[in-house]
Amino acid sequence: AYRFFLPEMTARATRRLQTEAELRRAIEGGELILHYQPQVAAAGGTVGCEALVRWQHPERGLLAPDQFIAFAEQSGLIVPLGEWVLREACRQQVHWRASGFTPLTMAVNISAVQFRRRDFVARIKHVLAETGADPAHLELEITESALMDATPELVARFEELVELGLTLALDDFGTGYSSLSYLKRLPIGRLKIDRSFVDGLPDNPEDVAITSATLSLARDLGMDVVAEGVETDEQRRFLRDRGCEAMQGYLFSRPLAVDAFTAWVEMHAANPP
Ligand code: C2E
Ligand code: MG
Ligand code: MG
After folding, report:
1. How much is the pTM?
2. Which of 25, 46, 49, 64 supports an S-S bond with 36, CB 3.0-4.6 Å?
3. pLDDT tens, residue by residue, 230-244
């Protein structure tokens, strides 16, 4: 066989190797940080938070997940990265509990690459044991891409996770390879209505139809719902009036570094919006 060779190919490969080395250093060397975004109840009060990773890059500044998560998934580094995130989120939950802070559900994003690994449940158990985190206040967010093949093995994995006492949430619901049959077969506790559907509320008829249908589907299946990307008071009122119990979005707060987050929660407990 023969292949064409272009100088760009080595340049690209070199860049990849360099990025990989940098990201590895970031995971091991403490350059990753978590920001926390509050989840508020429609009735008022903070009920939980979502942990969102950032990379404090020494030259490029604070990087958002869309700048490195896809690369981490392709390179396999999502496995140690995801484990760092889970451990850090669990540690934070334990720290808050020990300091008498309001108990909040901690939601952690799990990549399909992590979830599909055979040792996934064992790793979760390990982190829970190591940190002493309370699974009753832990939620794992997975996307529909993790469910593409709901094999018996995968179903068993879900059940094992739920037996640990934690909740499984379906992130970006309705944007992936939606198949309603997995809602029937898998013990999913919560649906996250994607920002792209909340965006057009309350005027866009398609978005109204999709969010209303999702809310009634969740209610009839006995699942909780959280709406993502709530930015306006009209969106909040629309969702509240249709029975959406929890929301998350810039209307309440952006994701915040830990100190700003705790200050935000305390301020809102003192004077609810
Ligand atoms: P996601 O899990 O759907 O997280 C919600 C994203 O929407 C966050 O972006 C959040 O900052 C943003 N957001 C929240 N409220 C609003 C709003 O009102 N308006 C707008 N325009 N955006 C809002 P972020 O932090 O950039 O994260 C993007 C995605 O990266 C996440 O989407 C998640 O899929 C992924 N991600 C973040 N952290 C992790 C992680 O630790 N592990 C994995 N595997 N993925 C992660
Ligand atoms: Mg999420
Ligand atoms: Mg989402």
Report:
1. 0.95
2. 49
3. 999 999 999 999 999
